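Please decode residue identities from the backbone states below.
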């Protein structure tokens, strides 16, 4: 990987078995994780480096029965 290419990271907020995920370059992902930790105090927030390939997959399931209006 070129040194100028930003490393992609995935931020995950773990709500028990449910996950909210966001993917961005490393700097933006860290800023997002910091903001999410303030918003969701007490929930686990993880930042995965996508270049390593060691991240756990995000579940593919609908979390809510009603869409936001």
């Amino acid at each position: 990987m070129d040194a100028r290419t930003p490393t992609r990271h995935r931020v995950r907020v773990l709500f028990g078995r449910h996950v909210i995920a966001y993917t961005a370059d490393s700097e933006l992902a860290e800023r997002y994780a910091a903001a999410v930790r303030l918003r969701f105090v007490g929930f686990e927030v993880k930042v995965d480096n996508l270049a390593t390939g060691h991240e756990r997959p995000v579940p593919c399931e609908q979390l809510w029965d009603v869409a936001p209006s």
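Observation: Residues 8-49 form one domain.
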